[in-house]
Amino acid sequence: MPIQQMFLGLGAAKDLNRYIWGLNDHPNSGGLGLNTANPGDMGRSSPTLLTAGDVPWVGHSCSGDGVTAMVREDGTLWSWGRQTHGTLGTNQATNTMFSSPVQVPGTTWSSTYNKFSGNTGHTFGNIKTDGTLWMWGRGSEGQLGLNNDNDRSSPVQIPGTNWVTIRATYQRTWGVKSDGTLWAWGTQGESLGINLPENAKRSSPTQIPGTTWTSNLSAGKNGGACIRTDGTLWMWGANDNGILGQNSPSPHKKSPVQVPGTTWASLGQDPARDIIFAFKTDGTLWSWGQNTHGTLGHNNRTTLSSPKQIPGTTWASVRACNYRAMAVKTDGTLWTWGSNTYGNLGHNNKIKYSSPVQVGSATGWQASSNSVGKEILSATLEE
User: Fold this and answer.
1) Which of 36, 236, 263, 371 could form a disulfide with 61 if both were Cys (CB 3.0 to 4.6 A apart)?
2) Handedness of CA 52, 14, 343, 335 (dihedral sign)
3) Distance between CA atoms of residues 307 and 320, nearest Å
């Protein structure tokens, strides 16, 4: 039976239903999981119900190049789309395609944002409920952390049992452990945050100095960001489009540098572009970096090299990828903005928006389910 929640005083039950929209043909991949992969079926430009069956979908989902992965309430992990570099995780041959969900081996997979990561570069990672970290997909740059450069078509465990956060991008991966340590692996050493030369590579987890890092970690196109226990925000890597928040065209930073401010609470960085969103403890939402498509949400296309507040104080969560963003407010409304090439924003059109626009009129969207992939978005609605 679907998850149900009883409303006090009403006795009425509501279901938590998963909706998905965006590009389905990438190419001919069936990436929306709607059991259709016909050439020319480009996708859905408004939220479309993803059938769950007897065991509902929960939490965060991940979408890379033509592949989507999602967890059910029973802890099983499912994926669909076109197999490239092993991204389906089902041990299938390259170019195998599924237009509806197929199960990835194993159970006790995590569905929370901090513990489940997939990206535009065919690399996926998930921290199981026992704290073990498992990765699969593209490994050509050591980004799987397995001390080699091999692709993996099914999940393989990374050493250790106390992982709390995982974030992966095209060529690099970062993770945080429960002891407050931060780790990096992959290529382009100057972007890893461990003070390496430009072309250096680490194919197994290597520690970034410090022991006060929190689970509020994000990964961008050429670097990362993490909040410390004192509420300070630190970033590292390339400073293209002012993404490091230093209010200047400063050079690359091989080690973490502080972004102004001390009350940062959580992050929502675009893994494919130089764009970052960050919450403060007072509920305000801030953004900076590249703004080619109005993704920063300030009703313009001006690139910013320091944080600027997006109007409002009731934002609950935000996710971004490939020039588009999606956010949920505390009243349960859903908002999107940025690039809209395939109707990805869910407004039943292909208009770009440079400030947040509400998707429909529903007020039951779940902040914890807010998920944005390269061309696919999804979220859970209580209705």
Assistant:
1) 371
2) negative
3) 16
